[in-house]
Amino acid sequence: MPGPGSQQAVPPQPEGRPRVVLGVSGGIAAYKACELLRRFTESGHDVTVVPTAAALEFVGAPTWAALSGKPVSAEVWSDVHAVPHVQIGQQADLVVVAPATADLLAKAAHGLADDLLTNTLLTARCPVVLAPAMHTEMWEHPATRANVATLRSRGVVVVEPAEGRLTGADTGKGRLPEPGELFELARDVLVRGGSPGDDLRGRHVVVSAGGTREYLDPVRFLGNRSSGRQGYALASTAAARGAEVTLVAANVSLPDPAGVKVVRVATTAELRDAVLAATPSADAVVMAAAPADFRPVSVSTAKIKKADDGTAPAIDLVQNPDVLAEVAADRARPGSVVVGFAAETGDDAGTVLEHARAKLARKGCDLLVVNDVSGGAVFGSPDNEAVILSAEGEPVVVPRGTKAALAHAVWDRVGLLLEDPDRG
């Protein structure tokens, strides 16, 4: 069985399969990269794993070879005639390093190349994504922060670490984001052909996501089918583009996006309070949540029982506040951009777009992202398609693709409005 110093030839690649280099540096989070590798291979990517020698102390070469279907080495001296230290980087469509330790970040920032992975980073001319994982003190050290700033200035995507349990009993910022989140980000970078950019750096954006619940009693509630996936995609992509992000999440079971402040709420009233509390410093507010339009006049303190005669109880409803219209009408920060979402279906009174244009005018927001949800489309799906309406200009049609792709299309439009000197 091949060992750590075995062959690392670069075999001919199947046509049409994106070539991904998965670098793994020496941190305890290396085990998570196994799941990331599985997601890449099962989605049709051709993956070459390049671990550091330290990474092989956590996960051995046989594991990487079995999961990728390729031999694995950390050495530049293996199969020298194939010049792997040059070819692997040259032939890659994407390089992802997860986890990226403080040592790896320092070497990458200063152009050091003492093993196969750092040589690959120097020769790669494709997009590069680094996912740091380390103790909080190491992440916050001025040297690491300077190295991250240098890498980002060169167009490298450095993912903000997540907060949570670290090695041992420690808790804080420095945790490797979940493999599913890293995979979606990497796929997004690959599809877009490069870094998402940092056009939102220095901006604070507020995003709402999910569906609110209006309780009838301690057990039952009025709600909707919103999964929160689009709002979470908006939060993740904004963070990738450099923004400070506050995510107001209503009843969402998704993992927290890395580098995002998450405020959890349940009801429409709670969502309203959280959004209004965050808007005074916000450059943009994107209301992707689905607030309930109505709530019960009163909430029973005990579970409502069935009647013996089979009659259903009458429930009196009152209309909830319109959070989007309120935020749009009373801009806490002059010049801020407000974006709404509309889940519409056509009917005898008008088409989806006709209803949406009326809503755009009624809400007073700058942009309205319109989903045709006829037949339950969009809800819970990993993909989305929409039309972005504005008060001025032609509609922007976003064809079916990932929810991250739609999120980027929204931020592209928001960025243009934020840079418009005639606004504000």
TrEMBL record:
Keywords: Decarboxylase, Flavoprotein, FMN, Ligase, Lyase, Magnesium, Metal-binding, Multifunctional enzyme. It catalyses: N-[(R)-4-phosphopantothenoyl]-L-cysteine + H(+) = (R)-4'-phosphopantetheine + CO2; (R)-4'-phosphopantothenate + L-cysteine + CTP = N-[(R)-4-phosphopantothenoyl]-L-cysteine + CMP + diphosphate + H(+). Its EC number is 4.1.1.36, 6.3.2.5. CTP binds at residues 293, 303, 321-324, 341, 359, 363. Residues 1-204 are annotated as: Phosphopantothenoylcysteine decarboxylase. GO terms for biological process: coenzyme A biosynthetic process; pantothenate catabolic process. Residues 205-424 are annotated as: Phosphopantothenate--cysteine ligase. Binds 1 FMN per subunit. Residues 200-414 form the DNA/pantothenate metabolism flavoprotein C-terminal domain. Its cofactor is FMN; Mg(2+). Transmembrane segments: none annotated. It comes from the Bacteria. Pathway: Cofactor biosynthesis; coenzyme A biosynthesis; CoA from (R)-pantothenate: step 2/5; Cofactor biosynthesis; coenzyme A biosynthesis; CoA from (R)-pantothenate: step 3/5. In the C-terminal section; belongs to the PPC synthetase family. Catalyzes two sequential steps in the biosynthesis of coenzyme A. In the first step cysteine is conjugated to 4'-phosphopantothenate to form 4-phosphopantothenoylcysteine. In the second step the latter compound is decarboxylated to form 4'-phosphopantotheine. This is Coenzyme A biosynthesis bifunctional protein CoaBC. It comes from Nocardioides donggukensis.
